[in-house]
User: What shape does this take?
Amino acid sequence: MWPMRSSQTPGVGALTARQLLSAFGPPSLIFQASHAALTRVVSAAVASALLTDPDRETQDLIARTLEWAAQPGQACITLDDPAYPQSLLDITDPPPLLYALGDAALLGAPRRLAMVGARTPTAQGERDAQAFAQAFSEAGATIVSGFALGIDAAAHRGALAATGEHAGSTIAVLGTGCDRVYPPRHKELAHLVADRGLLLSEFALGTAPAKGNFPRRNRLISGLSRGVLVVEAATHSGSLIT
Assistant: This one.
């Protein structure tokens, strides 16, 4: 799987991956290209790394990921896949690979609204978030949030509670691999979202929660959405960088 292999290559980020795709076309041709051809796009060091067989750990990860993606309702979506959201292609650093668990068709939903806020909101803020999300969902919007405690969870629950023929759903953008549930108390919510919405991550399977992952996933929340509603947040809250 070229995006995973390239993502494990030092010096290859989203921008470089897009440049390689533009230069060589089908991903398989990137790894069949000569060193000289690759150095027209990347540095000599990166070209050498791309032509080096992946180590055992990377090979095992690729095998596990292919097995995971072969299961119903699970998919890996690459930059060159028609299912890759156009709105993410427009951000500065779109992920080379998206892991999707649930209804990946929601990535093409016409009306997507992000809702974010405090992890420790007031009771009123939590009620408002759930009510707003349910109302927007019943109006046909797909609610995008970050699966955190507090406002995020309330937004997901509100969207899932929506009824009516035009009801939308919810996309939870994770700061872990799709096979990890964080926070652990959201295990039941994760099952509900996977069953009736979408769990989405740019992080490889098995990725544990790390402090830097959560601000990073915020760009996907906003990038997927036509608007962002901050329900309740402190002055220096991370929600404000979404």
